[in-house]
Structures are given as C-alpha cells and as structure tokens.
Write a structure and sequence with these properties.
The chain is α/β, with parallel strands linked by helices. It folds into two domains: about 5-180 and about 360-380, Rossmann fold (3-Layer(aba) Sandwich), CATH 3.40.50; about 190-355, 3-Layer(aba) Sandwich (Rossmann fold). The protein has 14 helices and 15 strands. It has helices spanning about 20-35, 80-90, 100-110, 140-150, 160-170, 195-200, 220-235, 250-255, 265-275, 290-300, 310-315, 330-340, 345-355, 360-380; strands at about 5-10, 40-45, 55-60, 65, 70-75, 95, 115-120, 155, 175, 210, 240-245, 260-265, 280, 305, 320-325. The strands form three sheets. A seven-stranded parallel beta sheet has the order 3-2-1-6-7-8-9, sandwiched between helices. Strands 12-11-10-13-14-15 form a six-stranded parallel beta sheet, sandwiched between helices. Strand 8, helix 5 (about 160-170) and strand 9 (about 175) form a beta-alpha-beta unit. The chain is globular, with a radius of gyration of 21 Å.
C-alpha cells in the first residue's frame, strides 16, 4: 500500500471560513495529498464569503454561530445527506481536526465502520477558560479532551514539546508529530520594506516590536500590552506594529494607542510585514506550535516568547530569542529592552533563527502525517482493533 491507496475523510470545525494557522496547515496538507495521488474529501461548515478558497472537495456541514465568538461556526451533526456522501466516498482513514461535536460524530461514525482515526491537535483548548475568568473549568475541559482523544487510534502534535505534554496528560498511547512548515519564498529577510514602514509612520531607525496573529484575548494581548507599558515607563525607544485582526482589536487599540495597526495581511504582504519588524513578541501559551514564531525566524527576526508548548521547540533561549515564564511582565520587558538596545544581538539572534527555520519544509512535514495514515490503515487491515472507548478520569 502507498499514498495512492489512501482515501482520507477530513473533518474540521473551520477549514477555510476564518483564516488561521491551523486551517492553513490543513489546506496545505490536502494539497500535498492530492498531488501525491490520494483521494480526499473535506467535511466542514461553510459560509457565503470564506476567508480563502478551499483546497480540495469541501462538503458543507450545518452549523450555527458560536456563542460569544460569532466569527466561528459550531457544527451540530452529520445530516443523512452527508452520511450518504461519506458512504459513497468510502474513506479508509478519518482525520479529525478539532474536538467539537462534529469531531465526536466523525469518530463515532468511523468506529462503527472500523475505519482508523487520526486526530490532529492544533490548540490548547484546556487553557482557554483562564482568559475568560473560568480557570476552575480547566480540569473538566482536560478530562473531556482526554475522553475524545482516547477514542482515536492516534493523535499528532505539531511540536515535540506539545507531544510530551499530551503524553503527560494521558491523552493517547499513540502520539506522533505533524509539525509545521514555512514557505521561505514568502518569509525571508529580503522581504523587509522600509518604504512600507514609512507609509505607516515608522521611521527607518525605529526599533519595531511586532505582534502577528488573531486579535483574541487568548493570544496573550494583556501580557503583550503590560510588557510594552514597562518599556514606556523605562523610556526605551521603540515602536509597536500589530499585524492581524479579530474581535479584540478595539480593546487592543485602546490599550496601545501609540501602536501601528496594519490589519490583516496575507501571502506576500504578510511576509513583507513580518520582515519589516525588528523582533517578534509572542506571549501566548495556547499555541501547540506557533506558526508566527517560525515565520518570524525565517524572516531573520529574534523572538521573545513565553515558555510554552510550541515555542519551546522553536526558540533556543539566548540563541535565536528568549523564552520567558508565562505572565512574567518584568522579564518580558527585560528581554524586549535587551533587543531594542543591542542591534548586534538582534542581528545574531535573527540569523540563528533563520538557520533553524531551514529545517522546516512543508512537503517533509506533511509526508510524516501520510506515513501515520498508512501505518494505521495497514494495522487495521491486519486485524487491529480500535482503542477502547471507556471513560477516562
């Protein structure tokens, strides 16, 4: 058996209607599978005006706006028409990309039909309650995630640090790596554009601290703004450039009135924006990998990040950036001040990050997941059985 024998049914709560790192990785994966001769069918909610065209054949799943975050959709069920479509497609492996209702329904359907299931982990959902004053719910969310992932044949994480956390949390007995790649034609130091910076009111010699990503509280916007406040109080010259959009944009703009908000940037524009910064500040602890961190490294920027899953697998403390204890405002400010005031250190760390980023190519990382698909299909064909679905405390 090889990749041309694969028939992959991919279930995702967000495949292309909102742009983020996870669904862009899924679209790249599908593109790679199709180029290698596999058959792929995607099942996900659809909207009239998605963020970008889907890669592959997308079948719509009924969904409602998610309460409190209406840009996201909550799929409720797999209707009979879609079940018939799945039966006609006849997948030999199911990939679930998120542990919501659609994911649960897909796992149940696959288990009834004795189809192996791979779950990819894209974010640390158990950390989300703390950003909304509900930290006491984290153990419950973790238990619910464990129940979901234990019903899958295997799970894949985007970084070794995340994979180790999943093992410690007893999420699965089969944890592999499906990391992320970077397009070096888009993200590289040559994309730096001083004229574009000037158009935003940023002088050529202004040391610019960048933020890239969805503007939502779970990205650590409060920690970012508190650390910038420290720089202001210390009188450290700098500018802040925010690239991205989201529901917390108004809050972030009020919090950082002197920052430049460039809005959403994509493709070559994003590569230009990242390369036109002088460092990336990523205080989030919710990422399982940190696509923006890798993209900044490829663009030759030092990265100041929280000690968290993902960042720990990309940032070597003191080599291509700094890793700081989550929420340690003074320490974050110290690291940012160091790079603001030491141009040679910025250059050395940026160069080191660029060299590290050269290890991450999309075809190589996607092939690792294809190998996992093939292994599970062979195991099931040889008489392997699904994992036990008993509740896990």
């Amino acid at each position: 058996m090889d990749v041309t024998h694969l028939r992959v049914a991919l279930f995702s709560g967000n495949y292309n209607y909102v742009r983020d790192g996870a669904n862009q990785a899924l679209n790249r994966l599908v593109g790679y599978l199709l180029r290698q001769g596999a058959a792929v069918r995607i099942y996900s909610p659809v909207v009239p005006n998605p963020a970008f065209p889907p890669t592959g054949d997308l079948v719509g799943i009924p969904a409602l706006p998610f309460p409190g975050r209406t840009e996201y959709r909550a799929p409720l069920l797999i209707p009979p028409s879609v079940r018939r479509d799945i039966a006609t497609f006849a997948p030999n492996v199911v990939h679930v990309a998120s542990p919501e209702i659609l994911g649960h329904r897909a796992v149940s359907l696959a288990r009834r039909r004795s189809i192996p299931v791979v779950a990819s982990v894209h974010t640390r959902f158990e950390t989300y309650p703390r950003y909304y004053g509900l930290a006491f719910l984290e153990p419950l969310v973790e238990a619910m995630l464990r129940r979901f992932y234990r019903r899958c044949d295997a799970i894949v994480a985007p970084s070794e640090s995340m994979a180790q956390l999943l093992r410690e949390q007893r999420m699965s007995f089969d944890v592999g790596i499906w990391t992320r790649g970077v397009d070096r034609t888009v993200f590289n130091p040559a994309r730096r554009d001083l004229a574009w910076r000037r158009s935003l009111g940023i002088a050529d010699d202004a040391v610019t601290i960048g933020f890239v990503g969805r503007l939502v509280m779970e990205k650590g916007l409060d920690v970012f703004s508190d650390a910038v406040d420290q720089l202001e109080r210390r009188g450290v010259p700098h500018r802040v450039l925010v690239v991205g959009d989201g529901p917390a944009r108004d809050w972030f703009q009020r919090r950082l009135p002197q920052a430049v908000f460039a809005g959403f940037q994509g493709g070559g524009d994003l590569g230009r924006a990242v390369a036109s910064m002088d460092m990336l500040f990523n205080p989030s602890v919710t990422e399982t990998f940190g696509n923006v961190t890798l993209e900044a490294m490829a663009a030759g920027l030092p990265v100041v990040a929280a000690v968290a899953t993902g960042s720990q697998s990309l940032v070597l403390d003191g080599v291509n950036g700094r890793l700081i204890r989550p929420g340690a405002i003074e320490a974050f400010a110290d690291a940012l001040q160091y790079y603001c005031e030491k141009p040679q250190a910025r250059a050395a760390s940026g160069h080191a990050g660029e060299r590290i980023s050269e290890r991450f190519g999309w075809d190589q990382v996607n092939q690792a997941l294809v190998d996992t698909y093939l292994r599970l299909v062979r195991q099931r064909a040889a008489g392997g059985t699904p994992p036990r679905a008993s509740p896990v405390p």
